[in-house]
Amino acid sequence: MSFDLQALQAPITCILSAPGVDLTTISAKRVRKALIEDPQYATPGLTAEAMKERRIEVNQVISRVFETVSRAAANDELKRRREDDDEDEWDAGDEPVDASEDSGEAQVHTKAITPKKRKGKKTVEESDAELARKLSTQINSRSRRGPSNAAASSPKKAKRKPKKSAKTVDSGDEDDDDGGEVKKKKRGAAKGGFAKEYTLSDPLSTLVGVEKLSRPQVVKKLWEYIHGHELQNPSNKKEIICDDAFRAVFAVDKIDMFRMNKVLGQHLHEE
Which of 3.40.50.720, 1.10.340.30, 1.10.245.10, 3.40.50.10490 is the CATH number of 196-271? Predict the structure, then answer.
């Protein structure tokens, strides 16, 4: 039994958007492992063997979702930088008037208004291109892995493991086995975005039937609801037709999967 590639877009979006995920070090291999090994992303027909057979197709889906997520992240970062720059763009002030009593003449010293030089900023397109290149390099590295690739994919040197850093798992496709051993990272993943539970807003709690869940579990519950109530647009599987319960959460009649995942954060509250 094969699996539906379209059904992987939502969990991949969730993985790449999860709190604590660094888009500059995330690899296609890490995403694939999460899809297979994390029960929250269980997809009909998706097994380690099926993933091996359709790895290239899955990588293409990961790449497309990555570009969408990284573009949104780059837009947010650019907006934040612009706001910071606008606050101190102008650094100017007037010195007080110095009136000389002896001469009877008032000498006014004013400081010339000089705008601060803006630091060079990358455009959204440049940021998107840079992030997309990083993921593309990881996905297509395969047999080209070596010390130079390892150095480019990780800002830190690995201790006693020259080809992999403590944070990044290489995405080489030919030598890696998705069903093999998953190496432990220095910082326990159990405390990261996958396991952290949030208190759900009232409308979201009503929709999924529980008050507390992790973000991946919420996404899984939403998709169970979508499939159970046949809310996907038959002509565009990426679009969800909202019923009353969905409309109470997302406040729209139709919503795409990426927008749904983004708005979802407004309904997840930390304790």
Answer: 1.10.245.10
